[in-house]
Amino acid sequence: MNVRVKVCGITSLVDAEKALEFGADMLGFNFYPPSPRCISPEAARSILEKLPRNCFNVALFVNEEREKVTATLECGALGDRQMYSAVQFHGEETAEYCRGWELKVIKAVRMKSRESLSVITAIPADYYLLDSWSAGYGGSGTGFPWQWLDGQDAGKLILSGGLNVDNVVEAVRQVRPFAVDVCSGVESSPGKKDHEKLKEFILAAKGA
Catalytic one among 8, 15, 25, 183? Predict the structure, then answer.
């Protein structure tokens, strides 16, 4: 089965539609205020309500209060339609925090060393997004040594960190993750996708 592709940092309807047109499987919406790709719940809703009903949308948070996460998710609901399929926690969220959500849970792991993988056994989640460590939160835009994942069951892993059209094929073939995640690698500026890069990336990942 082909690797899935998650396109994160969606801020406009045209970028969301192009990502889906080119074959993206998941769209990420960032609700972390310091991020240049942060979007308001209302703006996200205006995009989401125009997307297909079966679209797999991910809501990203960093060390956010549960009540605010719930309020953001409820803002995205349209009648009996749940607009988000998963929540992604990209901070220092605990095992207790990650339990009890009705949606799929993606826990980000900030890969400072091979030992960072201990998060996978310590915190329950449906998927684990592996990104490079950085002093701040959110996407680092840089890679980490993929050999740290040697021997790791990659069936629940979403590989992130510095992926672009030039390295995604090698990444997929070496790690064989459930999905790859891209943001800055397909942008013309923070929050604005370069549609040609986006298309090339998705085609490369799917064809790896």
Answer: 8
Could you tell me where the DSSP H helices lie in 66-128? 66-75, 95-98, 118-122
> What tens digit of pLDDT does each residue of 82-115 get?
899 999 999 999 999 999 999 999 999 999 999 9
Neighbours of 114 (CB within 10 A): 14
Neighbours of 187 (CB within 10 A): 18
Please state the domain extents for the chain.
Answer: 4-207
Q: What digits encode the pLDDT tens for the residues 44-74? A: 999 999 999 899 999 999 999 999 999 999 8
Tell me how far CA of residue 187 lies from CA of 20, 24, 167, 173, in angstroms: 16, 15, 16, 24
Asked if 38 is an active-site residue, the reply is no
- Which of the residues 15, 25, 131, 181 is marked catalytic? 131
The top-level CATH class assigned to 4-207 is alpha beta
Is residue 8 annotated as part of the catalytic site, yes or no? yes
What tokens were used for 198? 């986006």
- Cβ neighbour number for residue 169 with a 10 Å cutoff: 13
- Give residue 137's pLDDT band: very low, low, confident or very high (50, 70, 90): low
**Cβ partners under 8 Å of residue 17, min gap 6:** 51
Beta strand pairing status for 192-193 and 187-189? antiparallel
